[in-house]
Amino acid sequence: MRDTNGVAAQPIGFKSELLRPTTGEEAHRVTYIELFFDLVFVFAITQISHILIHQPSGTALVHTLVLTLVVWWAWVYTTWATSWLNPERGWVRALMLVLMVLGMLMSSAIPEAFTSRALLFAIALVALHLTRSVFTVFVFARRHPDHAVNFVRITIWHAAAGTFWIWGALAPEDQRLWIWLAALVIDYAGPRARFWVPGLRASSLDTWNVSGEHMAERVSLFLIIALGESIIVTGVTFSTGEISWLNGLAFLAAFVSTVLMWLLYFNHGQRRGSDYIAKAAERGMIAQTAFSYVPLLLILGIVLTAVADELVLHEPLGKTNVWTAGLLCGASAVYLLGNALFKRATGSPWLFSHLVAIPTLAIAFAAHPLISPLVLSWITNGVLLVVVIFDEGDARRAGN
Q1: Rounded to two decimals, what is the model's pTM?
Q2: Which residues pair with 197 in a beta bridge?
Q3: Which residues does residue 19 pair with via DSSP β-bridges, in sequence order?
Q4: Does residue 87 sit within a domain?
Q5: Statement to judge: residues 88 and 191 lie in one domain
Q6: Are residue 250 and residue 373 in the same domain, yes or no?
Q7: What are the pLDDT digits (tens) for 325-359?
């Protein structure tokens, strides 16, 4: 390729190969730098769960949902990128470390994201997205121009959403939530619209052919992070309270709920999902639905369960208020819905046990004035246990 003076034009992009190999163990392996990167999101999940713990209100619940959406999307976009990029290469490692710094800044601002630290939160978030997508454009530019154009589209969408994130941070506090909701709509609509841009059109599904095994394992590790946060909340709360048989039962109920959530996803669903995407011819849409959008419900269910368990540990007896009952039953229902959608998106039929359990939890919520928080906690655990038993039976009948 030559410019107007007949001089050979220099191609843009990195000269060295920074992409994962397409075959062998390294094509799918989760690297240590990726696990190191995840530590930032341990911090982020902790920050989010503590908002509801310290501010039990409807406004705080909405803020928690918005911030969970933001944190999950920042993490999942990076996971998509590292399904192509090779984290063992120096430049990619440097990128991951820069993203960690930006992620730490974003996470540190979470408790005051809607108040005094809104601008820090927004700038760190937008910088994280743009840094990752622009870097990936240059990685693909020399050898895979179609993929590079795809990340140009993604960069444009990030810039469009970023305008709303910054605008919301600068706007009055009573307007901030609405502007940031518009930013979230742009962020979450991008993949479904295949990042359509005027003049560039929509991206081809061929450019989304990620490593299915890598994507499945990364999402599983993030769920472990969220479950770990639930255990930390339970352990810290129990360690600072009185030692009594009531607190012991509340502690056991909280621990059992975490175990049951782990079983619901990891006992059979995770393996089936990983095998399904690994064998699929077109992995892009499966990865988008089953490993990008749907896991958000699982994360929300875990975070809300951790908050509910802390409330039960603080006051196991007495009348159950609407807030505690809503968190206990709602969190389990959201988690079950996420499991049902995940399994459906990875080739399983609709699971009767999951779908029946959700209205059962609604009945338990309606009965909350008659029972104590501790009893309601064990009832929700009982519903989850029944689903786990049915799930085991379904797996055995299917030969898994």
Answers
A1: 0.91
A2: 201
A3: 85
A4: yes
A5: yes
A6: yes
A7: 999 999 999 999 999 999 999 888 888 899 899 99
